[in-house]
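Hello,

Our lab assistant flagged a job as stuck in the queue for most of the afternoon. It eventually completed. Since we weren't sure the result was trustworthy after the delay, we are filing this so someone can double-check. Below is the sequence as submitted and the structure that was eventually returned. Let us know if re-running is recommended.
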Amino acid sequence: MTTNGHPKTLFEKIWDRHVVVAEPDNPAVLYIDLHLIHEVTSPQAFTGLRQKGLKVHRPNKTVATMDHGIPTTPPNIPISDEMVIKQISQLELNCREFGIPLHGMDSPNRGIVHVIGPELGLTQPGMTIVCGDSHTSTHGAFGALAFGIGTSEIEHVLATQCLLQVKPKTYAVKVDGALPQGVSAKDIILNLISRIGIGGGTGYVFEYMGSTIRGLSMEERMTICNMSIEGGARAGLVAPDDTTFEYIAGRRFAPQGKAWDQAVADWRSLPTDEGAVFDKEITIDATSLEPMITYGTNPGMGMKITDTLPDPTHIKDVSERQTLEKALNYMGLQPGQSLLQGR
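-- returned structure --
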């Protein structure tokens, strides 16, 4: 799919499909296909709607679940945290009042807000998805442009089904080769973050590409996209393919029959065109990867399990040196130490 012969990236295709208004030097008005909400970041947004006398514009495009504050104890054991009890009660009230579907405490579909979307077939390629949680980027594994938003933005989406957004730049992360034994999807993303730092993706959307990514399961792709935010990116994307379609097929809210065939045909047009240009690129040789560990106070402080801890005295930048010194001191570690050998 090209426009006037101009090859497009996956991100550009999704963005262009969803822009309602785009004016020079202003954020674009972006249409949102799916809005996921939970009990922690949504109460203030609903209060704002009441104060302004507004309704939820498209309640059928909003899905709620109990997630963040819920303990891991069995459901029949009463919750002891009073704040969590209040948040649950408020979300139940808000969903009843505004007509929003809710997977509440008694629902078999209640769960992690980034997991129930894929499990129910709500998350589909080419969509724009938002939620009041930074790790909404998880849904990017399905070829959806998904990102976290703040409480005021939640109110905006509830009221208009649109969102003001500055268009991010594109960042290709190319990973090729067979993963060595013991190396997981988590090691791929930790390796990337250790190379670029926690701010390396700021202002960008990552697109993960290459034979290694194509060979990953949907759960592994979700792991990588989930942690895109740890590298500073606005979102992470993997182009949809047969692995994606096999995962979605037959799920509760997935297209059925002829609509399924039409959807898949459309989804096949989404992957980045040959010749499309990214604003930035990085290449990772998967065959050289090892299990990764983090040793400091942010995900960028990562290293191969066989490496030794870095020495702050070898770092010229004063700020970086001091940050590393503080991190090692906080963790009780020494420069040159091998964590694999415990010394």
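-- support follow-up --
The delay was a queue issue, not a problem with the job. The result is valid. The longest strand covers residues 169-176. The chain has a mean pLDDT of 94.
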